[in-house]
Design a protein that fits this description.
The complex is a heterodimer. By secondary structure, chain A is α+β, with helices and mostly antiparallel strands. Chain A has 9 helices and 20 strands. The chains are: A alpha+beta, B mainly alpha.
Chain lengths: 363, 260
């Protein structure tokens, strides 16, 4: 294990406990709502907050008593936190200079990193003149500068407008794939966790409620929060433009029609999500013409108070959320015939290739 | 919103502006310009000018050296009684300067609480020396640096300091490379305000350091003394101070005079 951490930290009356094991080359997403304790965990891992007990090992070395400058950690902070008075180059060189590296060597390495991760950025530009996406690229370069063994990415997309996210996601994927240490990605948007992480751990009110691969968690969410957050329908496939401006996503298990925010001029690989609550169920083939109708058989039915989650085994397989009363009204039982329908506009589409949708990548 | 100004407001505003401008214009009208050369080249005037510049710059330096750490403690530490400390530290702003001078005499005068000990142990005497003038001037100027710096520190997101620490910067490096550069505009504003205040200092200086030509007689003190014997010379010396003050305003015009 590259990162092996188990600790408890207190902030006033709020207590956060975490056990995090991340292998070399692996990305663990820490997913939870605001106030769940994500920043506390980041602060403890980064060494800017002392846990009340527990310990942290990186590459088998206990770093508990090491000051921050001797911990092999690179951090990409929420809201990027680039120093406004330093140029992009000086920002990237900062963690090197802070650790005592000479100016020429640190700047040389910073130039290389900027060329690799943010080639559109003028190294001498101040952060204020950069776009949100460009700033985040510089922040990513700064995190990688000290050649860390643990990479902490704290909500790296929080300050980036939607149009720049696809490119940035692709970059983060590329960076984490090429990074040989452990990566901890903090996210409150499930799509980031589901698409970028090898494993996800859910954090609610200071406790880890579930840990597993994205597929495991989506298949069997253990809490209402988990169901809402990651119990989404997730499709992977090739996004192909249609003549009318819509597009279809061809997955290994069926085809769905979607409405991407920007026009496509070629097919690109993409990920799409659909909330179970946006899926309607029918006991007969629905009238009218919703763009997406999936015929299948009822699989598992999970009733939780007033809500019911229904698994529909069809092409593609879907999860729908309806009221418990509707289950009886529609005569749903495992094995029964069922039709699921949803509108194309309810599907959120995320191209995963950089340059996928021209004009949407502002950096 | 910009629009027509109601007449009563316009009249009062004109009166207000005239009230400020008139004394300055009157100085120019009444100045015995023929005596300009002799008044300003006189040994007294040039000595007072030099002393004023030296004392005010030294006081500004001491205000920064002592005031910035004080502002740091007020903005970032959690010591008990912090709000009391803040109130005490800025008292010199509201205190009549002559009271400050009396207080300094009681504390640092040759027979003062600490001054007696300083004199007996080191033979150090502040009263009636240039160092006394600097001490009195620092007393009234430093709170301006403290206020400006504390406001600046509060406006800096503390997450920048935590980020620097997480990136391996020791506290000293963080202060040098992150906090002070981000604080530069407020430090400059505080320093200029402190310097302007120091340049005009009168009450505390004359009370604590006395009015000794060449040692503690700064320009304001020279103006005060000249007024008794040479009203024309006093006006010319006053204009010298006006010129210095306006130079400060011009240097700081973006920060002080322009509305945002």
């Amino acid at each position: 294990m590259s990162l092996h951490a188990g600790f408890t930290a207190r902030r006033g009356a709020f207590e956060v406990s975490a056990t995090l094991d991340v292998a070399d080359g692996e990305t663990l997403a820490l997913l939870g709502p605001n106030g769940a304790g994500k920043s506390t965990i980041v602060d403890v891992l980064a060494g800017t907050m002392d846990p009340s007990d527990g310990s942290i090992e990186i590459d088998g070395v206990c770093v508990d008593t090491l000051p921050a400058e001797r911990r092999p950690i690179g951090v990409c902070f929420q809201d990027d936190l680039l120093f406004p008075h330093l140029s992009a180059l000086e920002n990237v060189a900062f963690p090197l200079r802070a650790r005592g590296m000479g100016r020429a060597e640190a700047h040389g390495r910073a130039v290389e990193l900027l060329a690799r991760l943010a080639d559109s950025v003028d190294p001498h530009a101040k952060p204020a003149v950069l776009s949100g996406g460009e700033r985040q690229r510089v922040a990513l370069a700064r995190a990688l500068a000290p050649e860390p063994r643990l990479l902490l990415l704290d909500e790296p997309f929080s300050n980036v407008d939607v149009s720049a996210r696809a490119g940035l996601r692709a970059l983060v994927r590329e960076v984490t794939a090429g990074f040989d240490g452990a990566t901890v990605l903090v996210a409150h948007d499930p799509i980031d966790a589901l698409t970028l992480a090898d494993r996800v751990t859910l954090l609610e009110a200071g406790r880890q409620t579930q840990t597993g691969t994205p597929d495991e968690i989506r298949a069997a969410p253990r809490s209402a929060y988990a169901a809402d957050l990651v119990g989404v329908n997730l499709f992977r496939g090739l996004l192909e433009p249609l003549p009318d401006g819509a597009a279809r996503l061809v997955t290994a298990h069926g085809v769905i029609t979607v409405a991407p925010e920007t026009r496509l001029d070629r097919a690109v690989s993409a990920i799409a999500t659909l909330k179970p609550i946006d899926v309607a169920l029918h006991s007969a083939e629905p009238e009218g013409s919703p763009r997406n109708v999936v015929h299948g058989r009822v699989g598992e039915i999970a009733i939780d108070g007033e809500r019911a989650r229904i698994r529909v085994d069809g092409e593609p397989p879907l999860t729908a959320e309806i009221t418990a009363g509707s289950v009886a009204r529609l005569g749903l039982r495992p094995g029964a015939d069922v039709w699921a329908s949803f509108k194309a506009v309810e599907v959120s589409v995320f191209p995963t290739e950089e340059g996928a949708a021209p004009g949407t990548l502002s950096g | 919103m910009r629009g027509r100004t109601p007449l009563p407001l316009a009249i009062l505003a004109a009166l207000g502006a005239a009230f400020v401008v008139l004394p300055l214009v009157a100085l120019v009208i009444r100045a015995p310009w023929g005596d300009l050369g002799s008044a300003l080249s006189g040994a007294g005037a040039s000595t007072a000018f030099r002393l004023s510049v030296e004392v005010s710059l030294a006081a500004t330096a001491f205000s920064l050296i002592l005031g910035v750490p004080l502002a740091w403690v007020l903005a970032r530490s959690s010591i008990p009684g912090r709000s009391v400390l803040r109130a005490v530290v800025i008292v010199p702003i509201v205190l009549p300067p002559v009271v400050g001078g009396i207080g300094l005499l009681a504390a640092l005068g040759r027979g003062g609480v600490v001054g007696r000990w300083l004199y007996e142990a080191f033979g150090l005497q502040l009263t009636f020396t240039m160092w006394g003038a600097i001490a009195a001037t620092t007393f009234v100027s430093m709170p301006l640096v403290v206020l400006a710096t504390e406001a600046g520190l509060r406006s800096i997101d503390p997450r920048y300091e935590r980020a620097a620490a997480a990136m391996g910067a020791r506290p000293g490096y963080t202060i040098r490379r992150v906090v002070l550069p981000m604080l530069a505009p407020q430090l400059a504003a505080g320093a200029v305000l402190a310097w302007a205040r120091a340049l005009g200092e009168f009450g505390a200086t004359i009370t604590f350091a006395g009015n000794l030509e060449g040692r503690t007689q700064t320009l304001p003190l020279a103006v005060y003394q000249a007024r008794l014997t040479d009203p024309g010379g006093a006006i010319l010396l006053s204009l010298l101070l006006v010129a210095l003050s306006i130079a400060v305003l011009v240097a700081m015009r973006d920060r002080i005079t322009q509305a945002r």
